[in-house]
Amino acid sequence: MYQKEKQEILDVALKLDKYELIALSGGNVSMRLPDGNILITPSGMIYDEMVADDILLVDRAGNVLEGGRSKSVDTVALCYIYAHMMTVGAVIHTHQPYATGLGLVYDQIDCDLTTIANATKGHVHVAPFSSAASQDMGEKVVQYIGDATAVVLRNHGVVAVGKDLHEALYSAVYLEEGAKTLYIAHSVGGQMAKMTPEQVQEAVEVFKRYGQKKIE
Ligand SMILES: [Zn+2]
Fold first, then answer.
1. I want to staple 80 with a disulfide (CB 3.0 to 4.6 A). Which of 120, 123, 138, 181 is the partner?
2. What is the mean pLDDT of residues 198-214?
3. Beta partners for residue 91, in sequence order
4. In a domain? residue 215
5. 88 C-alpha to center of ligand 1: Å?
6. What residues make up the domain containing 45?
7. What is the CB neighbour count within 10 angstroms for residue 56?
């Protein structure tokens, strides 16, 4: 069942690999189905060796309904996110180095780039430490993500969400590109050119009007 959706998850996972947001088997990609069940990548499998049938179908409590692999270790956290963020249709978890690295030093990745505003809808908060593969990880996401579509998990990685996989992918990839640019700016030193709240809001709105661009 859900072959098309499973392939979509796999395609997104391979894009994350291509853009160097994940390596080997790190992170996970998941999607909520109309009946509330969830499709999720398996634990510990290398993405470019994965096929659509390796994706698992779990219920909203994380019980496996279909699939022969072990489910992602973060399933408990993901189920918590889906249960508490009803507008979220897809979740991407990565260990992307630039956003995660900034989160080791700062409490927030400031929205000082129009691309970050477009993709994450504003400042990206950094949640305090939580253990991987715990419900606490999901609780921290729900508590700290605010109105943005991404949150950094301190000492761990990033969780990006969206109404669908495309939106979550956009958030994760462009957050990383933005974090890389901010890293360069911080490294150069000097005065950071901050965006005003009005400029941030305008960038978010402009993007809504223009619709989503397709990532290839
Ligand atoms: Zn992780």
1. 138
2. 77
3. 30, 161
4. no
5. 19
6. 3-210
7. 24
